[in-house]
Amino acid sequence: MKNNKIRSVLLGALAANLGLTVLLSVSIVSSIILELLPPLLLGRAVDSLTADRMLTAGLCFGYFALTAAAGVCRAVREGLVTAVGGKMTHALRSAMSRKLSRLPAEVFTTDTSGSIAARFTSDADAFEEMFSSGIVSLFTDLGTVVGMTVVIFTKSPGLGLLLLVVLPLLFVFTRQIQKRMLAAHGENRRAIAKVTGFLPETLSNIRTIHVFNSERFAEEKYDKVIGESFAAIEKTNFYDAVYSPVILTTSAAVIGIMMTLAGRQGPFLALFGITVGTAVTVISYVGKIFSPLESIGMEIQTIQSAAAGIRRIRGFLALPERESPAKEVLQEKPQTAGTAPAARKEPVIALRDVSFSYDGKAPVLSHFSMIVEKGERVVLRGRTGAGKSTVFRLVLGLYTPQEGSVRLAGRNPAALLPEEKRKLYGCVEQSFRPVLGSFRDQITLGSTGITDAQCSRALSVVGLSPLETHLDEPFAPERLSHGQHQLLAIARAIVTDPPVLLLDEITSGLDSATEKTVMEALQRAAAGRTVLSVSHRALAGSGERVVFVGEKETD
Ligand code: ATP
Ligand code: MG
Q1: Ligand 2 (ion): which residues have CB within 5 A?
Q2: What pLDDT is stored for residue 331 in this prediction?
Q3: Measured distance CA(543)–CA(526) in Å, rounded
């Protein structure tokens, strides 16, 4: 069930690129077949020569053409593997990015952003690697080994049987060597990391080492880690040195046994008796069959190490999502349709008997209620950690309360569609969060529906009109002061002319003169809107109603 998401994404990508997928499959099958054909022609040529016949031009040319075609086919396959692998990884990353925007806010507090980023980078890369250097090559190599064994069987059943015994044994041997090599490489990496850490540490403590006469101690420690690295490298060298001779000796032994038995009369003749040409063909196969065997081992390794990344991506795609907007619209429709005038009377923001806790244990809000009517200005106050920002996050629909209800313009804020949000409210946070792109992008956040006239109006309301001429320039945070950043944040919030403004401590960290400028801009921006703000300071003469979160401050 969980599997299905990742599988359907990948199958979808293959289906969307059907032409490439078919070409890739054709190139895999052709490269397996083309790998098998040249030794057969070579055998024929040798048979012709031993029978004192002239080699035909067709045979010579055929051998050359097939060898060249096998090379071309391999190159085409490599190119297609990269293209199809890239398309699949692209589809996977797009699915993950869609998932990211549907995740509830708590995921970002429980999972560090680094670990989420790793799903998109190293884990997705591991998938691509697994596809191109794992699955496709494994399939090709297995096809080659099976194909060669089948041909050998038809040419010389005795050699076929011999290979059936030898190949599995060699494969087990190959895997054992590969596993040991991998472990030794790991040991070496760890030892090198220790050496790299040890050197600067020793150098920075060199005076202490001299003063306390502990040179010997440092030397011995260094000797030990260097020794570990040396031993690990020795191990890999040993396995490397053993592997090739074993393979070469085995293939020589297999050929030797076959040739010895082929020369005998009696029962062996039926099994091993072959022409010189066939001998050349099968010897050529035996020489070629061990190299895919070694690759198969490496491909299994690649698949195994990528599997952990794929599991993590699967887990990521299976994370529970925020409430589905579609569901909410369906629930709300009968209400709004049947009671349209009543819905209009709904307060702009309504929290009713809300109890909320981030972790399900420590309560942050308990039985908190607050109603903000149209056109009102409400300030949330309370001691630090009382839950003011939490009320904001609930109103923004980032979290859903365990008890009670939160309504924004009569709707469940968690279920608002993304395009509805900016039409309904603008939000300014404690500090400005820039996005990559131009000055315009800072205001529109990439919404294409926002016109330059709207941007200009928003900029002029906050007193940043001079920026109008720079809209197309790349945004560099250094070009604006802290106060100007907050003004830009207000412009971003009001550019879609939303009826509601949500402001969380927007003047914190500003000096009093800048705070005055920002507050004046805010007064202009807030005209005609419903405003809910968090502020430690009361704003003189703005007709605000104060709502306390938690216990009332005693100061
Ligand atoms: P301040 O005035 O300092 O901004 P606040 O009233 O805005 O404080 P909140 O940020 O709402 O306080 O936090 C309320 C409580 O919830 C705090 O005790 C805080 O430790 C806890 N809290 C806030 N965010 C999270 C989170 N993502 N996960 C778990 N606990 C959290
Ligand atoms: Mg806060």
Answers
A1: 389
A2: 43
A3: 12
**Helix/strand/coil for 475:** coil
178: which 2 tokens?
């590969």
Judged on CB neighbours under 10 Å (0-12, 13-18, 19+), 387 is buried
pTM > 0.90: yes or no: no
Q: Is the CB of 364 under 6 A from ligand 1?
A: yes
Nearest CA to ligand 1 atom 10: 389
Q: Is residue 330 part of a domain?
A: no
pLDDT of amino acid 330: 40
Q: How far is CA 14 from CA 88, 92, 544, in A?
A: 7, 12, 59
Nearest residue (CA) to ligand 1, atom 22: 358
Q: How many domains does the chain have?
A: 2
Does one domain contain both 113 and 258? yes
CA of 545 to the centre of ligand 2 (A): 19
Q: Order of strands, edge to edge, in the sheet holding 530-534?
A: 425-428, 500-504, 530-534, 377-381, 545-548
- Count of residues making up the chain: 555
Indicate if 351 and 270 belong to the same structural domain: no
Torsion (CA) 271, 272, 275, 278 in degrees, nearest 10: 100
| Whole-angstrom distance, CA of residue 218 vs CA of residue 206 | 10
Contact (CB, 8 A) for 353 and 367: yes
The per-residue pLDDT for 164 is 87
**Residue 412 zone, left/alpha/beta (φ > 0; ψ -120 to 50; rest):** beta
Output the CA torsion sign for 272, 278, 284, 289. Answer: negative
pLDDT of residue 341: 44
Residues 275 and 370 grouped into a single domain: no
Tokens of 21: 């997928």
10-residue mean pLDDT profile of the chain (555 residues): values are 73 91 93 87 82 78 89 92 93 91 76 76 87 88 90 83 86 87 84 83 83 85 88 87 85 82 65 73 82 82 82 87 55 42 70 90 90 89 88 88 90 83 87 88 86 90 87 86 88 91 82 83 85 72 76 60
Range(s) of the domain holding residue 309: 8-317
Query: Distance between CA 532 and CA 424 in Å, rounded?
Result: 13
Residue 16 sits in the same domain as residue 138: yes
* 381 Cβ below 6 A of ligand 1: no
Q: Which two tokens stand for residue 31?
A: 């490269």
Is the residue at 80 inside a domain?
yes
DSSP code of 122? Answer: I
